[in-house]
Amino acid sequence: MIFYLSALTMGLCLSAMGLGIYITMKIFRIPDITTDGSYTMGAAVTAVLLTQGWSLPAVIGITVAAGALAGVLTGLVHTRLKIDALLAGILVMTGLYSVNLTILGRSNVPLLDTSSVFSALSVFDKAIYNEVWVSLLFLILLGGLLSYMLRTDFGLAMRATGNSESMTRALGINNDHMKIIGLAIANALTALSGFLVAQYQHYTDINMGIGIVLVGLGSVLIGDALITWLGVQRIWLQLALIMAGCILFQLMLALALSLGIDPNMLKLVTAVFVLSIVGIPRLIRSAAS
Amino acid sequence: MIELQHVTKVFNRGKVNEVSALEDVTLSIADGEFAVLVGANGSGKTTLLNTIAGAVLPSEGRVSINGREVTRLPEHKRSKWIARVFQNPLAGTAPELSILDNFRLASLRTGKKRLVIGINDRFRNTVRDKIAVLGLGLENKLQQPMGSLSGGQRQALTLLMSVMDHTDILLLDEPTAALDPKSAEVVMQTAEKIIADYRLTTMLITHNMRETLRFGNRIIHMAGGRVVRDVDAAAKKALKLEDMYGWFG
Prior knowledge:
The complex is a heterodimer.
Chain A: H1 2-27, H2 35-51, H3 56-80, H4 85-104, E1 108-110, H5 117-120, H6 127-151, H7 153-163, H8 165-170, H9 175-201, E2 203-205, H10 212-230, H11 235-258, H12 266-288
Antiparallel strand pairs in A: 1-2
Helix pairs in contact in A: 1-6, 1-9, 1-10, 1-11, 2-3, 2-4, 2-9, 3-4, 3-9, 6-7, 6-11, 7-9, 10-11, 10-12
Chain B: E1 2-11, E2 19-29, E3 34-38, H1 45-53, E4 60-65, E5 68-69, H2 75-78, E6 82-85, H3 99-106, H4 121-132, H5 151-162, E7 169-173, H6 181-197, E8 201-205, H7 209-214, E9 218-223, E10 226-231, H8 233-238, H9 241-245
Parallel strand pairs in B: 3-8, 3-9, 6-7, 7-8
Antiparallel strand pairs in B: 1-2, 1-4, 4-5, 9-10
Helix pairs in contact in B: 5-6
């Protein structure tokens, strides 16, 4: 039971990143892999600031700013220098590794007796229940905020940009600015996942972000399949299903581990999961036609 | 008022595929004028329209709108004076957004897109009334994604969207080329009505001779990137279909 509850919590913690990837991948149709770097960056900033005794609101603010900055960098490289988004993301992500190592000071920082968002909002006696409840509360707030933003006039302009650039240009929207803002929001959300996971697992590791973009991608694909399958139009429901995708993905990984798969094989299992999520529907479609 | 002075546009200058799309075009379109642009494929009509809209920046020459020079101004900053309808019905609307969302954005063409929810009952009713005029039954499908509509329906809605916010100029680039005759008729009638109602300065590109004769009060004939014939309102009235066939011999 605890095993699956911790998978649920991990899924919720990673949902912030899932929402970010949803923005870049589904709304802007930009393949952004700055994620690996901005996730670790969020965790690194969190670890250093919490160890130095900063208050949680300040830590959240700085984490969001750091992630947004990473996104702005990728956005600038992509829009100003006209470099392919994938390459722009790889450039920033690779550079961030050294930045993160500098922030962290060493490759691993434990967070054992520091304050955390989970202890600060504790209601239950048992730690795991608190972790579920706090991460759920955090994600509901985040999802609510994002859902509101996407329904505003600004949010409409953002969604239209990924949909029809000729239309948005003709309607007075600066597409480049929109993409930079979108990448900033997405990577700020990803950094918040780093913030949550660092506190949940009580440490930040310089390598924790390696391949995390694939986890996010797989999760968003599951969520998106649910959205299409159920024909969901409402934004808040779409965001909820993306979160459900993130949770399902973690449950699948947990299930694989419980079946006795070597934890060293986890990245391979992740890759195979994502491959099957992308590949199987295509195989079915080509078999049908 | 649109003015072009000695506008030249060369694509891929210095390369093997160099194309001279506009050559020394000097043109003035007065307020309220409705000019029909005709000419063979590759004659520079679309480049001319794109140069006015700001989607293409000229290699040489000056462009001004309402007396203000806009030669280097990007497209999204000219949208305060210019509304556009594209040849491709997909280009003028956002397919995954609802009809209502598309209209909301169109109503903010000249304004700021703020972090507030702008769609309320009043806005919804305004849009419903405007769409009802088309008689296509779309007024009851405001929440439907734009992408689920036919090309004709989308073009008709794009036209209505162009006057959701103030505009001086309407640029129509073969708006009916991708449509069946019946939808084309709905679109052109809608266009005619809003052009008259809002006194818009209009430029229409068409390959359809009957449309050329029926609409507008001026014909600009282009060939090889130049204006080769400029027919004013009086001469246009006297013009017959047979006269025009000779132009493209």
